[in-house]
Structure formats: C-alpha cells, structure tokens
Specification:
By secondary structure, the chain is mainly β. It has 1 helix and 12 strands. Strands 1, 2, 3, 4, 5 and 10 form a 6-stranded antiparallel β-sheet that branches. A two-stranded antiparallel ribbon has the order 6-9. β1 and β2 form a beta hairpin. The longest helix is centred in the middle third of the chain and has 4 residues. It is elongated.
Amino acid sequence: MEVSSISASLRTSGIHELVGLISCTLAHVRDDMSYARNNQPEDNYCLTCDYGNADFDIRHTLSAYALYDIPNFLPSLPRLGKGWQLNTIFIAHTGTPFSVAAGQNISNSFGGGDRADKVGDPFSGVVLPSNKFGNWANGFRWFNAAAFSLPKPGTYGNTAGTSFMDQGSMERISAQFRVEIFNLFNRLNLSGPDTCVCSGTGMGLSFATVQAYGSPGIGAGEPRNVQLALKVIW
C-alpha cells in the first residue's frame, strides 16, 4: 500500500464568543487489494495487475465546524438565558474509486474479477431516469452504461481496477435544534429493590435511581437534567 497525504487547518477561538475550525486534506492511496475478504482479482497469476487506487481513496476532504456561545438574553433569569450555544458542521469530500465489472468469466481465468471494456466516455450522454415527486425511486444515474461492453472471449477488459470515481458527498443541510428536560420536577425515582435473600441486610433496598434504557446520568429516571441538541442532517 502506498499512502501520500497533506493537510492544513485554520482554527479560531475567543472572537466574540465564536470558535471555529476549517480543515482541508489532500490524499492518495494506492494498493492491489484494499480488504482482506471478498476480494477477487482479475488475473490470479498477476495480482500486481490490479494495483491502482484503493477502494477507500478519497482525494479531497473539507470539513469545518463553528460554535457560538450566545450571550445571556434574559438578564433577569440567567438560568434560562445563559449557556445557550449554536453549532454547525460542514463536511464535503470527493468520491471513492470503483471498477466496472464484466460479471462473467470472460477471460477463462476464474479470477472472479473480470472487468469490462470501455468503448466510450462514461460521463457523456448521461440521461437521468424519470423520478416522480423527486424521491429518486428509480435511481440516480451517475455514468452512461453504454460506454462499456464485454471484452472478447478469452481476453481481459481494457479498464483498470478502481479507475473511475463516484459522485462524492456534500451535505444537503437541514438542522434540528431541541431542548430536552428530564425529570422536570426533580422527583426521586428509585429503581427496584434488591430482592435476593443472599444479600443479607441489603435485601429490600434500592441503591440507585431508574435508568432510562440503561443510560446512567440522563433520562427520565435520573435527577433533573437538561439536554440541548442540534442535529445537522445531510
């Protein structure tokens, strides 16, 4: 495996209650087998012929976040007006490599990884399928299937392994902000008592509060606690 990368980041803090970070990474990973399982070479007698972009090779990654501590907007009620924060996250990266497979033992080598021939520009003449209501029920076409064909019997395809890139990722951002208050009236909610005779004097005693779904420290059974959450969905 051959790995090369370079990254840079810029961070700011303490500027009008704003903290932020932006980071950019340029990387390239090459190998002849990315995973230990479910790998099928095109030619069992030439594993180095599959040397190329790693399956997880992501060339460019850009990530950023910002946190803003909101000043107290209720001076008369500081417990409600203080401690609020706005957070945002941004992530974008280029796609990962993929191979175009023949799906058949065209080469008669039984390697299992026969690849197709490229006969045209995969990214020209791409026609998207009809998708009603924008829900992409019929898929989203990334490349033109007519640009590939099966090789001649007894030969290998002319496409190299992992030589094409998919569409990458950049979030379509939606945000959800919520405030959750557990045990609003701070009622003591004890868990069930010890019911084993073997416990001796501990039998019949409860030593803890109820835990919501086994998560100590938060939930309806714990002492009053407040949780603020901002969910960024992309």
